[in-house]
Amino acid sequence: MQDIARHLATTLRRLRREQGWSLDRTARETGVSKAMLGQIERGESSPTVATLWKIASGFRVSFSTLFTASAAPAQQEPVWGEDSAGMQARLLFPYDPVLGFEMFEIELAPGAVSASAPHARGVVEHIVVVEGRLALDVDDQPRELAAGETLRFYADRPHVMRNAGEGRLRFHDVIHYLPGAASGG
């Protein structure tokens, strides 16, 4: 987990340097507090997936940019620890700028809920439930998916994912960035 914190710290500093942004400007653009950003840059925080999405959206980069070096294969750091919301993610395919997508395997612990702020405009998620039951609310419209079921939705609006079963929930999440929605960082 310490390696992940160190990598996030380095990546956030690099993104700020490339944009020429102060911590104040970064806080405004991402919606993440200056204090939290400072903790991430010092490697003192394990931010939730929702916080990391805010950072990626604010910088207009793909989510996987926060976890992979641009030339590193996905196998170098395939699993991130479980966040405070009970979510664990494994990168299956890092962001591909030609195809405009990245793919994750997500697990939610029993009873876990992950609320996401809107992602960058033009981001579309494709969900394929592999195991368990996923409750998903997009624009306050609830849906429940079982193993083998799929859903595609625009993720540039608030959405909430919840493990609706008593056991493990595992699903694949293909995140598609329409042109201009993200860069590789």
From TrEMBL:
Ranges for domain HTH cro/C1-type: 12-66
Q: Which InterPro entries match?
A: Cro/C1-type_HTH, Cupin_2, Lambda_DNA-bd_dom_sf, RmlC-like_jellyroll, RmlC_Cupin_sf, TransReg_Diox_bact_type
Alphabetized, the UniProt keywords read: DNA-binding, Transcription, Transcription regulation
Q: Does the keyword DNA-binding apply?
A: yes
Q: Does the keyword Aminoacyl-tRNA synthetase apply?
A: no
Q: Which domain of life is it from?
A: Bacteria
UniProt cross-references to PANTHER family, sorted A to Z? HTH-TYPE TRANSCRIPTIONAL REGULATOR, HTH-TYPE TRANSCRIPTIONAL REGULATOR SUTR
What's the name of the protein? Helix-turn-helix transcriptional regulator
